[in-house]
Amino acid sequence: MSARKVFVLGLDGATLDIIRDMIGRGKLPAFRRMMQEGAWGNLESVPNQRSAAAWTTFQTGTNPGKHGIYEFYDYCPESYNLTFINAGIRTGASFWGILGNKGHKVGVINVPMTYPAEKVNGFLVAGLDCPSVDSPGFTHPDTLRHRLERDFGSYTIEPGLTGAIVGGRIDEAVRLIEEEITQKIEITRSLMRSEPWNLFVTVLRSLDAVQHTFWKYMDPRHPDHDSTGDMRHATVITDTYEKIDGFLGELIGDLDSDTTLLVMSDHGFGPKTAATSQINPWLASQGLLTYSQHGTSRATHVLRSMYGRVVGMTSRRMKEKLWNAFPWLRDRVQSRLCFAGIDWRNTRAYSDALFANVRVNLRGRERDGIVEPGDEYEELVSVLVNGIRELKDTKTGESIVENVFRKEDIYSGSHTSKAPDILIRWREDIFVTGIAGVEADIHRTQGGPPVPGEDPRIISGDHHLQGILMARGPDVKAGLETHGARLMDLAPTVLYGMHECVPADMDGRVLTELFESGFVESNPIQLEGARDKGSPTQSGNYTRAEEEAIHRRMRDLGYVE
Fold it and tell me: Which of 122, 151, 360, 440 is the most exposed, fewest CB within 10 Å of its CB?
């Protein structure tokens, strides 16, 4: 990256295993060329593998404990509820903000957790944490929104596949993703050719959406895979990779020889496990979580069913009318479904049933906490870690846990306290069917996974730890397979490649192994002092209407209910 221009193509959820398999079958010529003419390898995501945390780490070069964003929401233990957030609460500057302040022209399109748009030296189109195209801060400069509408019609922040899938409208989901990726590519193509830039960053999120919802059609291991079904659905994921490959080929041809092309993803993908939604029943089986006398009430079962119908069978316009008419409803539904039937005053540990984590019901932190801080807390965490390590698969009896982490083991910084107390990493080398010994009690205690985001019948693919990294350009080694690269390493590496100092408070390292030795020898790494927070245009809080819009989108993506 000796040139002062870098183009970053972010592919949300791109997975090296799929790419290499398709290359082996004679497909993806542009990806093959990237691997032959540049450096490539896996790219380790953030510990919880969640998109909001990962893309913020990509931007800042710091871990979530430092930048403060773990999800698209903050969890509020004092109320057992969620508050949606955006990039306005981020601690630490983005690398494009740093470059802009040093005089570089930058262009940024569709990176998650970039709302409100920073006043960069160039332009920025905010990502999926932006409530709508009419929200102040959707673009910088503000006039760019009008150009997008004029040239490309109504801008699609997110196509909303999950609602279509829940409602059985599979062909509609395919159409939505095809329209969305085509628009993002056209916008990227137009702005990169018409605007001056030294750094250009664009993210295509289509792979994340299709792999979440179409994995079972592709993967014969999935219990809901139907090899006799419509084969068009079996190729939706690979078709999307091929469409991206076509655009990647264009980029390779269009970018001049002085520009480095970096292709990356925030995490990988694989089959979704049902075990995450079974953590609370397992905790109950260990005497650590207590349900009310009758378990989940009939009313909650009905609510779960009705909510699924609202998601899948109601038009987006009608859903908007419902949530706008009853703005208090969704928070209550979310809390009711995630924590259905829990007796908090007799519960020592719990999960939100959405992701693989456990929280201690700690006195003084949780509203109805009963575990005392200090020795009692430490003893319980040890019991939980040891017990989780021993979890077995429902069908095979194999161990299903790769590792268990206390939050202090994986995060550092002033925001570490916001993280769940324990993070579980399921094994990715086997298909995990569930937690042995507790699955029979799920419907009695919880009524099944919350709808639709944790139901493997709907969301059949999920985030895995290893994303992709590919680099091609001046002074980048050709044909090098890299090892040990992390998502947090990209920000300092881009700064270094553009001959700028690396902030000393970045947690990532410069990936010097990507470069020819002569370049590294003649360009020693230069560190500078800690940065300021950056330049968001407003606070990290949404208005009530904006929060409702974000909640709708996160639900449609399967990230919340």
Answer: 440
- What are the pLDDT digits (tens) for 223-265? 888 776 667 799 999 999 999 999 999 999 999 999 999 999 9
- The pair of structure tokens assigned to 460 is 């059949």
Instruction: Report how far residue 281's alpha carbon sits from residue 273's, in angstroms, rounded to the nearest whole number.
Output: 15
Cα–Cα nearest to 410, from 427, 425, 399: 425
- Label residues 104-118 b or e (16+ Cβ within 10 Å = b): bbbbbbbbbbbbbbb
The pTM of the full predicted model, rounded to 2 decimals, is 0.91
End-to-end CA distance of the chain: 43
Could you give the domains of the chain? Answer: 5-271+464-531+545-556 (3.40.720.10), 274-455 (no CATH)
| Distances, alpha carbon 128 to alpha carbons 6, 292, 517, 519, in Å | 24, 38, 39, 38
**Rounded-to-10 torsion of CA 143, 149, 151, 156:** 120
**Look-up: residue for tokens 């450096």?**
39
Q: Are 8 and 200 in contact (CB under 8 A)?
A: yes
Average pLDDT over residues 131-156: 96
